[in-house]
Design a protein that fits this description.
4 domains; 12-stranded mixed beta sheet; 6-stranded mixed beta sheet; 2 helices; globular; disordered N terminus
Length: 507
């Protein structure tokens, strides 16, 4: 799931968030536009093609992964499948409808004022062959000014160049080992693969022996970890260093000792929250200006324990990363949780009260309401959260009341709100009330960091054989290449937020 800038011939970089166009002073404010690029995706096996990479397929039994690439396309328009775009008002009524005829283009551009305040922009696949409609809808206030979105269409040449992809190579470095035994020496990197943290560390490594590791050409964090029974217990020494200064034989990197290794780490109350992973990251920018990334500082115990602290990092540059789940207390559905807390307080890490503002047992319903042109709204229990405190993704999959053969799978991205109107689509077979017996899913992201809210829009894409039953995956996702995805994942390790999503006990 979690599954966050792009160099391309089209404007895939997010340039900011949408919204109003008003400005002060006597000069009229320049018009602001939304720019939408339509991209199809496909897989290739050859690794030498000059293509930007957007993802990888799961590894086959032969250890082979297909590469997912993207290409500029015009949205599909056949007798069985149509791709259309809608602008809706706050009540779900249609303001503007871009039909398949209007979309004989690979880019859509219109003034932001075309979408009413509190209005919506929707992208829809209408499939007559299986009578399924897939829709992804964005509230105006969460839209980036420019973005790319998935659209099936004629396949063209892939987006280039391959130079936009992460450039990773295996290099070597030398670290002067500090005193002690059972020490691991190694280099932590930006965008590090955390599945096998110790894979490229060397135990009790002599100063004149090289340590080999993969990295992009970004600054590095050289370090020594103390271990016990093959488990990392504390960080003993560290040094941020430019990529080009990795030490040489006879002149290894000399580490700085941490101030102490017994900083207090207080985990959430176990009766409310089960921790599945706990990591401490640091931003190295205070010590090395271009080390403005999230670097793994150390893995933490899953219950109360200790961590290593160095004042030179800066208290505000420590980030506690937790992943886990709400205690279900016998309920079939509960929150999965990803949480990042910024800073230390007098050398103490604290992650209590993570779920206080969230509803204990989330509910989503389709109910009659007066502020929808269809007469129905999707209501969400959002606890003590409001629109100023974050963003949400809501999915409803159901059938139409008067046409039980016609189903819709509708994803909404909006500010956190407890009611969303159902929408009209200029089609008599689906412009009808929804069956209230629906499959539902919600995820809430609580943060006031706009860049994190924007990254949230991209966390629900699977570009290879997406399983329609997977409620965490968008049928029509926003797209970014893998380099931009890595940048977003880096951001999600060094900004404060709490992200929750529905999970369900296996039957």
């Amino acid at each position: 799931m979690h599954k966050p800038t792009i160099s391309s011939v089209i404007a895939l970089a997010l340039l900011g968030c949408g919204g109003g166009e008003s400005g002060g002073g006597s000069q009229p404010a320049p018009l602001k536009y939304f720019t939408v690029d339509f991209l199809g995706t496909g897989t290739i096996q050859a690794s030498d093609k000059n293509c930007q990479v957007f993802g990888y397929s799961p590894e086959s039994s032969l250890g082979i992964k297909d590469t997912v690439v993207a290409y500029v396309t015009q949205p599909i328009n056949t007798t069985s499948v149509q791709y259309e775009v809608f602008i809706h008002n706050a009540n779900g009524g249609i303001v503007k409808h871009f039909t398949s005829i209007d979309l004989k283009v690979n880019r859509l551009r219109f003034t932001q004022s075309t979408i009413p305040e509190d209005g919506y922009l929707s992208f829809a696949y209408f499939q007559s062959s299986n009578r399924i409609t897939d829709v992804t809808t964005f509230a105006k206030s969460v839209l980036p000014d420019s973005f790319a979105i998935h659209a099936e269409g004629n396949r063209n040449s892939c987006l280039t160049p391959s130079g936009a992809n992460p450039q990773i190579k295996t290099v070597s470095g030398y670290i002067q080992r500090m005193s002690g035994t059972d020490l691991l020496s190694g280099f932590n990197t930006s965008h590090q693969n955390l599945d096998e943290i110790t894979k490229n560390y060397a135990k009790d490594n002599p100063d004149n022996k090289a340590i080999n590791f993969p990295s992009q050409q970004h600054p590095l964090l050289a370090l020594n970890y103390e271990t016990k029974n093959s488990r990392i217990t504390s960080l003993k020494g560290f040094k941020f260093t430019p990529f080009s200064q990795r030490g040489v034989q006879g002149s290894p990197i000399v580490l700085d000792p941490v101030d102490w290794t017994n900083g207090e780490w207080t985990s959430p109350a176990p009766e409310n929250f089960i921790i599945q992973n706990a990591l401490l990251f640091v931003n190295g920018k205070k010590l090395l200006s271009n080390a403005n990334y999230a670097y793994l500082w150390q893995p933490l115990s899953l219950d109360n324990g200790s961590f290593s602290y160095a004042a030179s990092i800066g208290d505000e540059n420590y980030y506690l990363y937790l992943k886990g789940r709400q205690v279900a207390n016998g309920q079939p559905r509960y929150w999965g949780v990803q949480h990042v807390a910024q800073g230390t307080n007098n050398g103490v890490l604290n992650a209590d009260n993570i779920l206080d503002k969230f509803p204990e047992q989330p509910e989503i319903k389709i109910e009659t309401c007066s502020h929808s042109e269809n007469g129905q709204c999707i209501t969400i229990d959002t606890g003590d959260l409001n629109a100023q405190q974050g963003i949400q993704r809501v999915l409803v999959s159901t059938k139409r009341q008067s046409n039980n053969d016609q189903s819709i799978r509708h994803v909404f991205y909006t500010p956190i709100k407890n009611s969303i109107p159902t929408l009209k689509f200029n089609r008599t077979n689906i412009d009808d009330k929804l069956n209230t017996n629906a499959t539902t899913f919600v995820s809430l992201l609580s943060t006031n960091v706009k860049a994190v809210q924007e990254a949230f829009l991209y966390q629900h894409q699977t570009l290879y054989s997406a399983n329609a039953a997977d409620l965490s995956v968008d049928a029509i996702p926003l797209l970014k290449n893998i380099a931009a995805q890595q940048d977003q994942q880096d951001l999600l390790k060094r900004q404060p937020y709490t992200w929750v999503w529905l999970e369900q006990e296996a039957e």
